[in-house]
Amino acid sequence: MKKIGLLCSGGDAPGINCYIRWIINNAPNYDLDICLIEEGFKGLYENKFIKTDFQKIEYSYYNGGTIIKTSRFCEFKNKKIQEVCVNNLLANNIDTLIVVGGNGSYLAKNIIKNYNIRTIGIPETIDNNVENTNFSLGFMTAVETVANSIKALKESAESHGRCYIIEIMGDKSGDLTKIASISAKADICSTPEEKLSFEQITYKVLELISKGKKSIIIAITEKMHNSYEELINLIHNKTKLLVRPYILGFIQRGGSPTALERYFAANLALVTLKFIKNFKDSGDIGIEGINNYSITSNKNKQIINLKNSDFFDLIK
Ligand code: F6P
User: What is the CATH number of domain 2-138+257-314?
Assistant: First the structure.
């Protein structure tokens, strides 16, 4: 059986354990053996290949996080460290590496590719900002988590007649803020793509109050402001509303993956296996739609429309 390395890197997101479960379970049907590497590129550097614990993988299926751990490994920029990583792969008879991660992890993946290792990218981040895909693994669940948080904050804000500012992750992408805000009916939304100044936000608050609104939820993507102090004072001075900021934080990265997330994970695993088995190039697997996936290889994007027979492949 051909050995394939798999690691996840960067921020965790719900759905990684599902992807691992599906790929480990289905790999033997493609005559492939998936070798798990703990703690991302740091683990690869430290040669942390781990024994597959099938029971642990089954039990982790509905859980967030990643059973094979992840890391942000800035030292990877160092050429000597890259060479050790590549040598560790080759010493373990592995010339193909699956990297589950976001933008930063894809940069590291592309460096490994330059050492003639075949690489496969699996988009995974709550930020939904990975190249060559419409959606990344973990994003759907994070939308659910954030929307539920906004809904809960609304209940409190309405009870007290307050204004809450909720800061949402996403790095430079406003997808998570925008979709969760619409879904949970936040009153005002500011994202990197549609950034509102504090004056504009305050103006909108005043408009809403003039229309009879007694409580306000303002959703803002992280990293756009150093502090909300000025905004809090502006709104409070003009409306007398009590204004409280709320940084949602890392709970956005956790939680049980939604059913749709698990479905995406299964199909990403299926497309990965078919791609490794039938082609020779490196490539990034993408989620285009519920039943449509893609493989981007050498800048060419090939759309894979999954058929019923593919689903039976998964569960055979
Ligand atoms: O993984 C994505 C993300 O959660 C971003 O939304 C956030 O900006 C960043 O990671 C936080 O990174 P760290 O886990 O290193 O604090």
Answer: 3.40.50.450
